[in-house]
Amino acid sequence: MTSPFKAGIYAAVADLLLILAFAAIGREAHARGDIIGGAFTTAWPFLAGAAIGWIALRAWRSPLVLWPSGVGIWIGAVIVGMLLRAATGQTVVLAFVIVALISLGVFLLGYRAVTALVIRMSRRRQRRA
Q1: How far is CA 90 from each of CA 3, 15, 55, 81, rounded to the nearest angstrom?
Q2: First-residue to last-residue Cα distance in the chain
Q3: How buried is 114 (Cβ within 10 angstroms: 0-12 exposed, 13-18 middle, 19+ buried)?
């Protein structure tokens, strides 16, 4: 079994990488060049929002649960991310908000849901043995 500290590190790194992947996919889809540097430019507001979600919820205590950690980090990433984008003159249009909400939801909640399922199945197998 993974220690709570390690689980927190794994979840934080997964969140970071998935938000960067979201930004890189978006940059590539819109042929905006400089995918690596551009991905960081696109991602930083969402990363800041996710970090605020982590801190506000103290998500490190149970980083892999869907509620409240996963949902709070997801909503924090989107809401704070969009507010920071608006404050810094980056594009914030309804279509992008919807895409970010759905994509980051699938990414940030999806791996947590899969992890919960794997843990639940593992515990069932251990009880049977």
Answers
A1: 39, 22, 25, 10
A2: 17
A3: exposed
78 Cβ neighbours under 8 A, 6+ residues apart = 46, 49, 97, 100, 101, 104
Rounded to two decimals, the pTM is 0.92
Average the pLDDT over 36-43 and give the result: 89
Q: What is the CA radius of gyration of the chain?
A: 16
Distances (CA, A) of 32 to 58, 78, 82, 119: 36, 21, 19, 40
In terms of phi and psi (left: phi > 0; alpha: psi -120 to 50; beta: otherwise), the region of 31 is left
| pLDDT at 3 (0 to 100) | 83
Q: Fill in the amino acid letter for 97.
A: V
Residues 84 and 42: beta-carbon distance below 8 Å: no
Find out whether 21 and 78 touch, Cβ atoms under 8 Å: no
For residues 45 and 90, the answer to whether their CB atoms sit within 8 Å is: yes
Chain position carrying tokens 């979840």: 11
